[in-house]
Amino acid sequence: MTGDLIPGAPGAAPAATPVDADLVVSMDGVGVRRSGTALLHDVDWRVELDERWVVLGPNGAGKTTLLSLAAGRLHPTTGVAHVLGERIGRTDVNELRTRIGLSTAALAERLPGDERVADVVITAAWSVVGRWRESYDRSDEARARALLDQLGIGHLADRAYGTLSEGERKRVQIARALMTDPELLLLDEPAAGLDLGGREDLVARLAELAYDPDAPALVLVTHHVEEIPPGFTHALLLREGTVVAQGLLGDALTADNLSKTFGLPLTVERHGDRWTARAA
Ligand SMILES: Nc1ncnc2c1ncn2[C@@H]1O[C@H](COP(=O)(O)OP(=O)(O)O)[C@@H](O)[C@H]1O
Ligand SMILES: [Mg+2]
């Protein structure tokens, strides 16, 4: 056993590092309290490298809080959370930031409308918003363009970000989150505010990402089962900061679990690789 070895000494297991190298997120008994309220309560959750998770729940369920924890931007009040082998609260978050792609409405609001689309993507590499220097490396430009191409908006690379449609902006935000080649990609309600065409287009792009074996581990937050892209493998259902159900998509997304999560009787149907839900 390693019990009597000095931590950090040759032969000793690295302290507080998950044993499983494929484990991207691991939470044990994690709670978050703010002003006496439990935003999250007793969450146990593991995300592996090849998994694509959807986090479902009504407004205020704690989805964004959970994502902030996984992004290392928030510390648990109770329990233990590891992300990419680093213990949250005990590690330099700036080191983790380039390893995690994060796209949220709050971050999107800070993107300057007069910025060239390719620059919006490139600047992610430095975790800054806006212009950072006069000229870029050619490889940065090439990577940003390749990502925009991959998301079907390569032709918009030289446009001003502010001139894009909402759907095009969402795709730029995802390209930006992928710029640092992260090991974990966190998307908070990427389809919010899109019309039907925009949503279907985004769902198709996210499905491509989900099926790409080189893509990072994915966690997608939504409150609509209709927005679950094909290729997603797992679901975590949250209500009032508590996990209602989690596991393989087909096991977790039952009418019973969804009804408990959203607090009303629901039926759920699977049509091929898409889902719908409605009041029972
Ligand atoms: N700093 C805070 N202090 C107190 N309550 C908060 C704070 N941040 C969020 N909340 C509350 O925590 C709950 C969960 O928020 P959030 O994680 O954003 O939910 P979701 O993303 O599922 O809509 C909400 O009721 C919200 O109002
Ligand atoms: Mg939210």
Automatic annotation (TrEMBL):
Pfam families hit by this protein: ABC_tran
In this chain the ABC transporter domain maps to: 25-265
InterPro entries for this protein: AAA+_ATPase (IPR003593), ABC_transporter-like_ATP-bd (IPR003439), P-loop_NTPase (IPR027417)
Question: SUPFAM superfamilies attached here?
Answer: P-loop containing nucleoside triphosphate hydrolases (SSF52540)
Q: Which UniProt keywords apply?
A: ATP-binding, Nucleotide-binding
One function term, GO molecular function aspect: ATP binding
Q: Which domain of life is it from?
A: Bacteria
Which named protein is this? ABC transporter ATP-binding protein
Organism this protein belongs to: Micromonospora carbonacea
Which taxonomic lineage is given here? Bacteria, Bacillati, Actinomycetota, Actinomycetes, Micromonosporales
